[in-house]
Structure formats: structure tokens, C-alpha cells
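#structure-requests
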Amino acid sequence: MSQESLLSELNDRSREVFRRVVETYLQTGEPVGSRTLTRALSERLSAATVRNVMQDLEFMGLLDSPHISAGRLPSQMGLRLFVDGMMEIDAVAPTDRAAIEQTLGNDDPDTGLLLDRVSTALSSITHGASLVLMPKHEAPIRHIEFVSLAPDRALVVLVFADGHVENRIFTPPPGQTPSSMREAGNFLNAMAEGRTLAELRSNLSRQITERRRELDVLAAELVESGLALWNGETTDPRLIVRGRANLLDSEAADLDRIRVLFDDLERKRDIVEFLELTEKGEGVRIFIGSENKLFSLSGSALVVSPYMNADRKIVGAVGVIGPTRLNYGRIVPIVDYTAQLVGRVLSGRKG
């Protein structure tokens, strides 16, 4: 069931009970009992009524009960629903803002030292472990490899010509398999020498355009002979062939050529999408528990945000790792503000 469906199934009473359970858990880290909730709810309800609502929420998978007699905790799915659909984001407190700005006010030309100070400040402010990824490398690629971590999560390993190595996490196109990822890596490695990621993507896009032109010409010839219908205006073109038995040898050869071009286009489009996803950055992201394959420790969460250079290109990221009961409403804007500030400072530097 989607998050929208789950939220729509919650009436005002169950929504408030759920929100109070999550907020109390995030503050205390302890299971929340029905008697505790009755004192906090805006609507006067008996402990028995609150228990029934909590049981319904548990049946929906939004709450867990560590022991039969204990209170309830939000499940991983419940935390995700709360973070995505119900959480209120705080403004960055002036003291936190000042502490972050102070680390970046130094004119130290060493980017590594600057980001080390940012990491220390983030850890101190949030009381969590900080994560800072250095600006992305722009040297030519020597080797590229895609590794499937989960159906919706993959790792790309980039080895640059100067020996630098980077690992990046991305969401692969739907339906990709470990073997298709290996094939994509092999294809890219065959043409990667001396090219950056952006140059690789540009080269592939040019090949796709050339193949589309060739496909359009061949298909047009079959259409003119009345043997086919062609819809080549879409990103997913279709060729409908009529009366295959009436095809002449030359037309059958054209049809085989069209099939090869279709296959080639499909593969190259997939690989371009891999490259775009590899380069693409996203806003603040929250990974809870097993959602994050790099930090899938029981009860852990990661809040991470990319930062950009002067060309508005994602070059690195900052984040905080902590328990699932992080104060997300406070941590998310701190991470976001830090990422924006780092981007502005690095954009103002030469070289």
C-alpha cells in the first residue's frame, strides 16, 4: 500500500495518536503507552480507546510492540510515513547557524581542512556521526563498474585516470538486473579511455541520435511500400509490419536491420540513463534503517544533502548518521543549510 493510501486510511483520531507516538518516541527513545498518550491528546479519550487505536495502527504496520505489556514504537514503515507526510520542519536555530558559519568563515585554501571542520561542527551540533563527501572528481574515467545492492539501489565504482576512486549510490532504472549492469559497465569501459563521465554521456547521446536517424530512414522505406506503420515520434518508437510473408528479400533484410537498431537503441538508452543517474544529485534524503545499504545497522538513520559548485552541478554531500529516533525536524534543515553554505563557499574559490 502506498503512503498516500495509508495516510488516507487514517482518520483524525488515529492520525493524532500516530503522530503523538512518533514524536514522543523521537524525544525519549522509549515505547509509548496508552496512559501517557491520553494526557497529551487534544481529544479526551480513555486509555482503552487509545489502546484500540494503537492496535489498529500496529495491524497497519505503522507501530511495533516490543513486548505484549509494553507501549508501542513506530516501525520503520511508520517512521518513513511520518518523515515524508507528517513531519514539521523547524527553522535552523541561530546558535546552530552561527556554529556552522564559523567553521566556513576561515580563508584556509585547503578544501580538505575546511570540510573536516564542517564534519566536526555537524557532529557537535547534531550529536550524531557526520558524513562529508569531498567534491566529485572530473578526471577521465579509467574503469567503471555497476554493482546491484537491492532492486531499487545500486553502487557505481569509478576509477579515474589519476588513480582516484569514488563510490556513488544511485537508484537504477526499473527492471535492471545484475547481468544488465555488468553489460552496461563493459560497454562503457570499451569507450571510456580519455573521457570524463559527461563526455561519455555526450558521446552516447550522439550515437543514439545517429541510430534514430538511420532507423527513421529504413522504416520510412517500408511505410512507403505499404508494408508497415511507423510511429517514430515518441521516445519509445513502434513499427507495425503487415504481411510479413509478402516481404521481398531486400525488405526482409531491412526489417532485420531495423530490429538490430531497435536493440541497439534500447541498450544505449539504458546506459545513458545509468550515466545520468550516476551524475545526478538529489535534495535532502533520509534513509531509515535497512533503506540505506551502506549504513543498515539496526536502528540507524542517515540524513544527507548534496552541495553544488558555481555551475549548479552536484560535487559532493554532507550528512548526519544517528539512531532512527533522530530529531528529523531539526536535523534536516541543519544538513540542508550546511550543504548550501559549503556550496557557496566552494563556488567562490578559484581553481
